[in-house]
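Board notes (copied after class):
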Amino acid sequence: MGRDPIRATVNDSNKFAAVIEGIEIIAELICRYAIVEDLYPQSSSAAGIELEKALVKLYAAILTCLSRARRYLEERKAARIMKSGLSPGNEFDDYLENIRLAREEVRQCTDLADRQDQVRHHGETKHLLVAIDAPLRRIADELKDVQDQLQTSKRTRILQWISPEPHIQYHEQAKKDILPGTGQWVLSDVDFVMWRNDSASSILWLHGIPGSGKSKLVSIVIEDALRSFHDGLGTQPAYFYCSRNTAEPTRSDPEKILASIARQLSSFQTGKALLSPATDLYKRKEAEGFASGPLRIEESC
């Protein structure tokens, strides 16, 4: 039940990232093609006319993207997330693709104009294009800061506040001493493959007596999911190893378990930007002086 709201939030964050990427591309294009217009003044030649049409088409694609981005950003966050849940596709990718195609058409026209008119002052042109690299890099860095304005130290504090549980350490302990090649049968098991490929939310129950190797098999599954993520074939998995060991009471506490899952879902990738639900909740708690204590179950879901 808790998966769909999370998916909607992730979809909305993907759209937000696409908007930021679009702004970065547009910032570069505006700088670059302002120079292109100076270098290729209006001409009655066939190449000049086609270049002018291509530029108009490019600017129209840019304006369309900016218009849609503005409407998206002006929407209330709750409404955006709800729409993302109903329509998981990312329309901004289409706008960026239209801009890319228009940009390619402009490039072809400038190549044609170069051959037809034998543009002079090539060295000056190259110098101007190189000169804008530094401000473009600065713009790119500033746009990245928009996605994650938190310094590394603050990001760490937020993650530690959400959950201090060392879930990676638990995983390392679980996979320790597994002999190479053993347990791989579980990855090709029919029930497991059906569960992994099913788009619906479901539970796969691996049961057995204590000490039969359940945790070892699960660690193999998690390692496989992590490899798929790093290869770009899947999303980053979230996991937690429970334990009935009385020396580790937090590993059987539902509140601590869900908080650890929430921490792992708070960003798309380790070290990357934190999602707004996590940062917004932290800021609200920080403003209250953390008087309500650690993360509660209902806040983790």
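Comment from the instructor: Residues 3-39 form the longest helix (37 residues). The chain is about 70% helix and 0% strand.
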